[in-house]
Amino acid sequence: MTETAKKIRKISGLILTTTALLVVVAAIVVWILLPGFANKKLTKFVTEKSGGNYHLSIQKIERKYWPFSIKFHEVSFVPDEDFSAKAVQDSTGKTTYSVRAKSIEFEGIKFRKLLRNKAFLCRKVSVEKPEVSLAGDELAQSNSEQMAEMILAQTRPFISNYLNEINIRQIEFTDASFGLYGPAGDSALVSGTDQVSLEVLGFHTDTAMIFHQTHFFKTDDVLVKITDFNNEMGDSLHFVNIDTLAYSLKSTDIRAVGFRLAPLYRNTAKNLYEVDVPEVYVKSRSITHFALNDSLKISFLEFKNPNIRFFQKENPDRLNLEDLNRFDLYTLIQNQFTKMEVDSFQLTSARLEIFRQPDYTSYQQQFGAIDITLNGFALDSTSAQNTEKLLHSDEIEMRVSDYYLRLEDNQHDFRADSLVVSTYSDQLGAYNIKISPGIQQEMQSRTEVNIACEALNIENVNLRNLYHTRSLPTSKIEIQKPDVQLKYHIDREKQKKQEETGLLYELVTDYLEGVYSNLAYIDKGKLNIENHRNEKLEGYFETDFTFSLTDFSLDSTSRQRTDKFFFATNFDLHFSDYEMQLVDDLHKLEIGQATISSTNQHVQIENLKLQPVINNVSITTMEQYNRSELYNISIPEISLNNVRLNDAFFNKKLKIDHFKISTPKIYFENFGTLRKTGETTDFTEFYQLVFNYIEDFDINKFSAPNGKLTWVNHTRNGKTISFDNEFSASLDKFRLNKNEIGKQRLFFSDNFDVTIKDQQFELSDSVHILKAGEIRLSSANSLVSVKDALLYPGITTENYHELATTFQVAIPELIISDFNFPEAYYSRQPNIELLELVSPRFQVYRQTDKAKPLDLNKYQFPLPAFLQSLHLNELKISDANVVTYATKGIDHRAVANFSFSLSMPGLVLENNEQQQAQILSSNILLNISDFKAPLGEDHNFSAGSLNFNRDLKTISIGNLQIDPFMTGPGNNRFSISAPKIEFTGFDLATALKQSNFNFEKIDIQTPSVDIEINKQIQNDTIEFLQTLDLYPYVEPLLNQIKVNNLSLTNAELNLNWLKKELFNNKINLSFNDILIAENQPPSNFLNSAAFEISTTGLQTKSNDNRYRFSAGSLTYNSSRHQVLLTNLAIEPLIDKEKFPKKDGYQTDVVQATIDFAQLQGINERRWLNDNILDAEMLKIGPARLNIYRNKRYPFNQQQRPPWPQDLIKNIRQPFVFDSIVLMPSHIRYSELLGTSDEPGFVDFGNLTLNGGQFTNIAEVLQQHNNFIIDARAELYNQSTLSARFNFDMTSHDYYHTVKGSLAPMPLTPINKMLGRASPMIIETGNLNRLEFKLELNATNSSGLLYMGYNDLKIAVMEYNSSEQGKAGFASFWANKMILNSQNPKKGELEPAPIYYERDIKRSIINYWWKSIYSGTKKVLGIEPKK
Hints:
Keywords: Membrane, Transmembrane, Transmembrane helix. The protein is mainly beta.
C-alpha cells in the first residue's frame, strides 16, 4: 500500500497537466472543425503550429447533433522522430511528449457559446485507454509541480490564441497508462503505472488562469484508481497486494479493496505477520506530500474487518506484554519512508491470532473481534521503544470480543467475552472471564482451577508504563462476581519449584513484573476449596466473599513481606455462607457472613455456628472420635475491633482491642468418664482445638452480651449436673495461652463484667421474697447491680397478717458501687461503697387499723435472710415511684401516689429482734415528686416536688395543690395552690417516733387560697376563725402538726363565709404558733395563736366611671385587732372641665389622697357573728383634698344634696366606732366665676378632726344620739379656725349645733376668693375677733355672731379697654357711704343676730357658710334695709 501511495504522488502532477493538455487540444480541435476543416487539415495544422516537432493522427471522427457531441477514434499525438533524435543529441534537457488514446468523446458541447464567446462548455469528456509518455532530464530532477509548469509553459500560446474559457462537467480516463522516462533515448522508466482510471469532476480554466503561477485550472475533484497493485515491503520479508486502489485529489481520501500483507517465506527467527483486510480507508492532507517527502503523513487510516495472524519468533521464555514491542511495524516501510505518521488509525471488527513458531496451527491467544483506535500513530526507527507511545501511538481505544489465552502452565485456559483498553479513560476491562482446565485427560497439576468472573475493571492505568515495563500501576482494580473453585489433589506430588509462591502470584507474574493498585476490589465472589485424596473428598471450605484491598502490591518483593496480607497494606474482606470442617473431624464451623478489615482493623462475623458434623451424638460417638467435650455454639454476631490481623495469619497470635460476641447460645457437654487421666480443667479439648488455629489470645476487651449457657457435666462417678441460664460477660485484658491456663486470674482477665439472670432470695421476715431478674458483677467498675428485681410478700406465709405494712417493690436496677471483687472472693469480706436502687416501683400496703400513712416507724424493710447487718457508705434510690394502699381484710384502696429519689450516706442496716431492718445514717436527702393523696373525705392533696434534708432540717415543696373532690354545696371546702413552700426546723426523729411533724417556720410563696364555709354549727353561732378545726383533715395521715411561724406571701385569697365574700384579693398572711392535734380545739384561724393578713393594689371605679378609688395596701392583724389601709386615693378619670359638660350643670370635682386609714381595736367576733364592724377608733392619716367647681355653668335647681346624717345611716355595713380622728390634713375649695379666668379658692391647712362615737346602728344611736366633732384648721395659713359640731343623729329635722371661732388675721388674704368671686377687693383691714354660735334644723338657722375689725377699706373694680382697674367713685362711695370701716366704732363689741332660711338645693356646708354670712352682712353694713 505504501508503494502505491508513493507512485500516486509521483504521477499526480503528470495526471493533472496531461488532463489539461488533452482538454485544451480537444477543445481547439472542435473549434477548428467547426469551420469545416478536414482531418488532414487538422493534422497539417498541428504539424505547422509545432514547427514540425509533433504530429496529430485521428483515424475516425463521429458527430452527434443532439446533444451536440463528437468522438475521435485512435488518436495519437507524438513527437517527430527527427525532433526526438535532435533532443537526444543536443542534451538540451527538453521534455518530449507522447499521447495516444483509443477514443476521445465530447458529449453535450455548447456550440453557441463556443462560436460566440470562444467558450468551450461540455458535459462530459471520455478518454478510453490513453497512453501518456514523457521523456527528458527534467523529469528526473523536478517534482510534479515543476513538470506541470514546464508543460503549460509550452502550451500557453497555443491555448490562448483560440479559447477564452473551458468548462467540462466530467472527464473520464479508463485503463490509462502513464510513464516517465529519463533523457530522450534512455528507455529507463523513472515512474509509471498501468491500468489507471481517472475521473475529473467540474474542470474549469480560462486565459487568466492558464498564465497563473500556481493554479492553472480548477476542478471539483479528481479521482485516481489503480487495480492489482503489488509491492514488496521494506523488510524484504513481507509483500503487499491490493486488488483496487482509489485516490481522491480533492479530499485526499484513499480507499483500498482487498489488502493483503504476507511473508515471502517462513523465518522462525523473525516475527511474521499475515494480514487480510477487505477494505482500507486513508485520508491524507495532500497527495503532493507523498511524493515530495520521505515521511508519510496521514490524517486517518482505517482497516475494516481485518484478519491478523501474528507468529512470534521461536522459543521465547514466555509470551508477555513485552513481546508486543516486537510488533515493530517500521521494518515494513523503512526502505520507502523514514517516518510514517497517522493522526487516527482504526481497526474495525479485526480478528487477531497469536502463534508461537514453529507452531503455525495452534494459537496461544485469540482476539475474536477487535475494534481499536490509535491516535497519534507514528512509525520510525525509535517509535517502538518510545515510552511515550503505546503500540506506536499517543492514545489507544480498544475493545475486544471473544478473547482466549492458553496459560503458561499449559493446563488451564483463560477466556473473556470482551476486553476494553483505553488511554483516554486510563482503563482496562475484561468481562465474562473464565479460567478452566484445558484438556481434562492431560490435567496433571496438583491444583485444579475453575474460575468464572463477570467483570474485571482496572482504572487509572498507566498503559504506556504497562506496555513498556510489564508493570501495572493503577488506582483501582475491580473484579465482579468471581466464582472460584479450587481442587487440591493432595495425593499428587508438587511440581518442582524453588519455593511455594501461591496461585495468584503464579497467574499474574507469568505475564507481568508487578501489579500495584491503590484499591483492588472483588465483589460478590464465591470460593470453594476441596481437598481430594485419590478422588475422595477429605475436607472442604466454601464461602461467598467480597474483597477490598488497598495499597495492593504483587511482585517478587511483596510476596516476601509478612506485613502484607493478600499482597496489600490493608484489606477489607466480606465472606458469606462460610462452611469449614475443623481438624478434630467432629465439629464443623459455619458462618452466615464475615467481614475482615485491616483498614479499620475490624472483623465482623454474623450467624456463626460451631456444631457436631453428625446429629444425636452419644457417648459411643464420642469414643469413636476420641473426644470427651462436645460443643454446640450459635452466635448471631461477633465483632473484633483493632485486630492485629498479620500476627494472626502469619504468627498465630491474635491481638484484639475489643472482641464482642452478641447473644451467644453455648451448649457444652462434658463426658468426664472419657477424659484422660490427670485432666482436671474443663474445656481442655476446646483449648487444644482453638490452639490449632491461634496459639495466643491477647484481647484488650472481650464482651458477650445476652448469651445463654447450657452446661451438662457427666461426672466420673455417674452423676449428671446441668445448668441453664442467660448471661452476659465482659472481660478486660483477657489473655489465654498455655501458660495462662494455670494462673489464678478470674476469667483469664484483669477485670470482668458478668451478668446472670433469674436469681431468688428469701428475706429475714420470712414473709418477703426478693427475685432478681439480672445480677451483674463488674470488677472493672467495682460494681454489683441487680436489674428487674421484685420484692413481694408471700401471702400464704404464716406471719403475713401480723405485719402492719407489706411491700411489693419492682426494682429495675439496684447498684452496689466500689465493690472489691478480689478481696471479696479471697477474704469473703465485702466492702460496699454505694448501694443504689434505680427506678424502683413501691406498692405499700398499710393495714388501716395498725398504721397511719405518715406513721414512719411502721415502715420497716427486711434484709435478705443470710445478712444480719449491712454497712454502706451510701444508699441511693433514684427515680422511684410509690403507691400506698389502705387495706382492711381483703379490701384495699389506693391512697397516695408519688415519685422520689433518696440518698442516705453512712448507712447501717441491722436486723432487730422482729427481723426488721433498723436504719441509722449520717444524713437523709429525699426528693419527692408528683405526690397525690386524699385529704380528709372532701379534698385531694398533690405536690409537684418535695425535698428533704435531715441535716439542715428543711423541707421544700413545689407546686402544692389542695382541691375539693366536688364543688357542690355541703361541707366546708377549701382550695390551696402554692408554687413553692419552704419548711425549716423539721425534727425527723420526732416524726419517726411519735408521728408528730414539728416545724420552726413554713414560708409559702404566691399561693392561691379559696376557703368556703358552708356548714353552720348549733344555734347558727359559728365562731369561724376559732372553730375551723383542721385536725380532721390531717388525722388520717399523722398525729400532730406544729408550726412556730407560717407565712403566705402574695397570696390570692378568696374567703367566703356562708356565701358571703369576705376577701377576694392578693394578700400576705402570717400565722404564729399553729398547733393541729387531737384534743386541741382551735382558738384562732388555722389553729394559730395569731395571724396577719395583708393585700395590696386595691382599686375600684365609681358607678358612673368618673372616679377611681384605690388603696396601696390593706392589712389585718389578729393580735393587734386592727385593719390598716394605706395610700388611699380618689382620682378623677376625666378632665375636671368635662364634668359639668357631661350633665350641663355645676358639679364639684374632687381629688384626694390619704396616707392611711386605720381601724383599731376591732371586735372580730362581733363582725363575724353579727356582721357589725365594731372598732375602738377610726383613724385617718394626713389627707389632701381638692374640690373644684366651675360656676360658669348653670346651677342644677333640681338637686337635693343629702344630709350627712342620712349618708351615715344609709351605709349598708353596720358599724360602730368609739372615736374618729383625722390627722393634720389640707383642704382647698376653688371656684371659677365669670369675673376672672383664675379660680378663687379657700385653703384650710393642718385640718384635724376628733369625733366621738360614730355609728349607723339605730339601737346604739338610741342610747348615744349625739355625734360630736371637734375640728381645727389654718385659714389661708393666717389664722386658726376652730369649730365644734354636735349632731343629734336621732333628730328627724336634722337638728345640730355649730360653735366656732377664727383668730385675728389680716383681711387681705380673703381676696384669693373675694377678688375672683366679685368685682371688689379688700385694700386694708384687720380681723380682731370672730365667734359664732349656730343652731340649725331642716329649714333655718339662728344664732349670734361676734365680729370685730378695723381699718377696712375695699376697692370696687371695673374693666376699661379689657383691663381691670379700680373704680374710684364707686370705691369712694362704697367705703364712705356703704361699708362700716370698723366694728365696733366705739364701746363694747355687740353680737349680731344670725338667721338664715336653708336653701334645699344647696349642701350643708353652704348652709353653714350662708348662716354665718347673714350675720356678717349686718356687721359690715351691706345688708339691705327693710
